[in-house]
Here is the input.
Amino acid sequence: MLTIGPYQFEHNIVLAPMAGITDAVFRDICRQNGASYTLAEMVASKKQLWESKKSSTRHVNINDPEPRAVQLIGTNPQELAEAAAWQVSQGAQIIDLNMGCPAKKVCSVAAGSALMGNPEKVQEIFNAVVNAVSVPVTVKTRTGTDRENKNALQIAQIAESEGLKAITIHGRTRDDKFQGSAEYDTIKAVKNQVNIPVIANGDICTPEQAHFVLKYTTADGIMIGRASQGYPWIFRELNHYLKTGKQHKPPSLSEYQQTMLQHTLGLHDLYGETLGVRIARKHIGWYTQKLPNGNLLRKEFNQLNSAIEQMALLKRYFSNLLGNA
Here is the structure.
């Protein structure tokens, strides 16, 4: 059983924080489908950005199921400590620190996975944040900055010594970005050396892969990112397979219909029509990859500019499909 601080999770499959994707709407859908624990998108630690339009949809949603977890990104220990304290005052119950993002605009200011190249700074950050809040603090890292400098174990040991409650490791270096294949030897080595929970991340897309990674690394949990895009049912499929050794049946067309309508309407409500319509295109594009004539649906959906049109098209598409089923 995955445990983070006082929180025990029924399942050990976690939804990864993904910028522009894991908003309150998507987190809710993933929880409905078996994700025990979800993280909000990363939020910048800079005070002046807390109330920006973009950041305002990324803060704690008090309606989220507990524990409410927020991921922070930054490089200044005091800034991160203040941001963590503010998020807790708004209802955050777990603070996650981002040291895994390989994006250029993040790493160019030495944030995200670039921080792994500066263990002294990492220790300062861990110390400042843990001392600023009374809730569990966790961290997400990569295996290192590049293949010659894999120091996830060092970072994990610092995390444990400073009182962090869990570490998630993506099985690639910062230089790898998302290229090549994730490796799990580093995660296994870290799990063997530290006592805090270790969550494995990277290239886990099928029930069989989830089973292999958990067994091979002996990790306490696994984190799912890209495999959930357009397919939130991945969580129930993984949970079912890990429990029974058998495949869960794929989602029905009715389930696709219900989830896609819920997701689209939720985005319209969360972001307002203009932005909601735009963001819905991305998500619906992912859902259509496994649907009959999905490419045509995606193209038509992408040309629509109003919430009413988007909802009407989805209803029409499924009415035609289910009417012929």
